[in-house]
Amino acid sequence: MITLGIESSCDDTSVALVEDGTRIVSSLVSSQVEIHQRFGGVVPEVASRKHLEAMLPLLQQVMGQAGAGFTDIGQIAVTVGPGLLGPLLIGLSSAKALAWRYSLPLIPVNHLEAHLAAAFLATHKHPRFPYVGLIVSGGHANLVLAEGPRRFTTLGRTADDAPGELFDKAARLLGLGYPGGPAIQKNGLTGDPKRYRLPRPMAGKGLGFSFSGLKTAVLHLYEQEGDRLSLPDVCASLQAAVADTLVGKASAALAGTQAKRLVMAGGVAANKPLREAMAAMCEKSGIEFLVPPPALCTDNAAMVAAQGYFSAATVDIDPLLVNARADWPMGTAFPL
Amino acid sequence: MNYIFLDASSTEVYGQAGTARDFFPFQWNTERNLASRLTRLCEEMLDRAGLRPHDIARFGLGTGPGSLTGLRVAASFMRTLALATESPLTPIDLFTWSAHTLAAGGVSGLVRLTVPALLNQAFVVELDLPLEMPFIGLSPRLDLPGPAANGIPTFGIRYESPGVKRVDPSPSILHDLMQTAMPTDFDALLKALPLYVVPSQAELNLEKRRSSKQ
Question: Which pTM value belongs to this model?
Fold first, then answer.
């Protein structure tokens, strides 16, 4: 069955066709990064306008690439939250139009759940439960126990900044531009991760995260060191601090739940030092580690289509009445 | 030609279904919850007109100005329907619709048309009636909502105040506009967007920051 996926929760408009939840037929992303760079972050009103403009060309191109017509679609999956409300409404309204006109099943998808599904999509396999899921991005740091397509128990989340947000703010401070994650990784390539000893926030204190202290630590370091500050070393050190923190929490979650599988996803999961550190921990502990390739870590509609396919049977409402929700916790009832 | 039209420029959403013979106006208070009710509103219009979704040969979109979120939700829905069914989409702004309504009522010459905006301002255009073409490109500006200082007759769209006469865009005029032939190509569809009269607040703030630096 072909699932049409639509994603518009933040600053990427994306449309994809996925077969049986595991094979990408066609997938396109229209990024607004360059537009938002001048603002230093995503502006919801501007993002909404751009989503509206981008949606039809993407739909047409994806269908054209696949050589498919709208009548070839079996069902539609669309992100309805969490995310920016204005942008979410663009994707949702477009999906509803198609579902209504062609009497197709509509599957509301949780954006964070979709990120985890990307790891299984990448391996062309259906999800296997249970597993510990770690979603790290510009807006989220969530540690969950997954026991079904929509059965999630939150183990920990950030009390303040998300790691991607930390990278964005640190990059701005260091004059590296937006988005921060890729810029920090690039500048840290030749750096010494042990040069600056940055804190590992809340290490050994439960499964929650806090990254605002790390941001402050970078600020203090920047002020103390002045012109002596080594850009490669501070970038490498910051990535090491984030990776150590996340590896420590994931390891504790695996031990606490007895799960034998870890899925890491979200935009920050594309960070190379983090991927290497997490893979090393899993290998040492005999844990199966799944992480999407970098292209599927950032927001995309293929992961939405995959999660829609896997969770279609859980839709227990009239999906044409569903609404977008800025805050929709994983595993909770569909928003009306 | 069978059509459905949706104008979500305010919380009082206006809809209209039409056939070659008749038209059926609707108004709903969606309580800022348009997205969850979109398909129900369309079903209601179609039921009244005795139509089914595949009977619709043309879609109409109210482009405002007005509530940006409402306009975008309706635009996303109608644009996708038009794309998927390869049907024309007719974008109709409140000024053009009201101008034709006034002209049909015998008003001619230069008029000022206003739509209330936030912060004691109004979206304003000045038009010479009757319009030479059914659809014209408009560039509204923000101005005070009251009567024109230069004595041009001022009309408030769906409101009145001292010196400002009320005009209610007419369903029969909309029906006529919806029967007007429209291009069906993809580029024409992409141009059917809400009437963005002002830049976003973020863009204004950015301009301010740039100005203060210079």
Answer: 0.93
Tens-place pLDDT, residues A38-87: 776 778 888 899 999 999 999 999 999 999 999 999 999 999 999 999 99
Work out the minimum CA distance from B159 to partner chain A, whole angstroms. 27
Contact A93 B84 (CB under 8 A): no
Question: A196-214 b/e with 16+ CB inside 10 Å = b?
Answer: bebebbbeeeebebbbebb
Among A43, A70, A336, the residue with its CB nearest the CB of B84 is A70
**What's the token pair of residue A193?**
């991760």
CA angle A301, A305, A307 (to 5 degrees): 115
Q: Residue ranges of chain B with pLDDT lower than 70?
A: 197-206, 210, 213-214
User: Which candidate from B36, B78, B81 shows the least CB-CB separation from A322?
Assistant: B36
Contact between residue B75 and residue B93 where contact means Cβ atoms under 8 Å apart? no
Q: Is residue B174 domain-shared with residue B89, that is, in the same domain?
A: yes
Dist CA B194 CA B209 (whole Å): 27
Report CB contact under 8 Å: B36, A323.
yes
Residue spans of the domains in chain A: they are: 2-123+296-321, 131-292
Q: B159 with B66: CB under 8 angstroms? A: no
- Contacts (Cβ under 8 Å, ≥6 apart) of B142: B117, B121, B122, B123, B124, B197, B198
Q: Please tell me whether residues B163 and B183 are part of one structural domain.
A: no
- CA atoms in the 13 A half-sphere facing the CB of A240: 17
